[in-house]
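Internal QA ticket QA-208
Title: Verify multi-chain structure generation after dependency bump
Assignee: T.L.

Test input:
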Amino acid sequence: MVICLCHRVSDRDIACGAQSGCTSFEALQDDLRVGTACGCCLEMAQEVFEQHAAPVSGAAARAGEPLAA
Ligand code: FES
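Actual output:
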């Protein structure tokens, strides 16, 4: 299904981007340009991205935490 009509980006394109290294929606936008014209697709595109984005591992999640005193 086409999500972004302006740039002809499908849900499969977004899923592939999310699963192949785009670590943020902004990175995905840099790659696919999804949502960068009229913006009508932004909400749907973000939902699809979040459904397919790789979960952050425990170690990676903890990397941003401040060290305990
Ligand atoms: S439909 Fe995606 S930017 Fe217009």
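Spot checks passed. The chain has a mean pLDDT of 86.
Status: verified.
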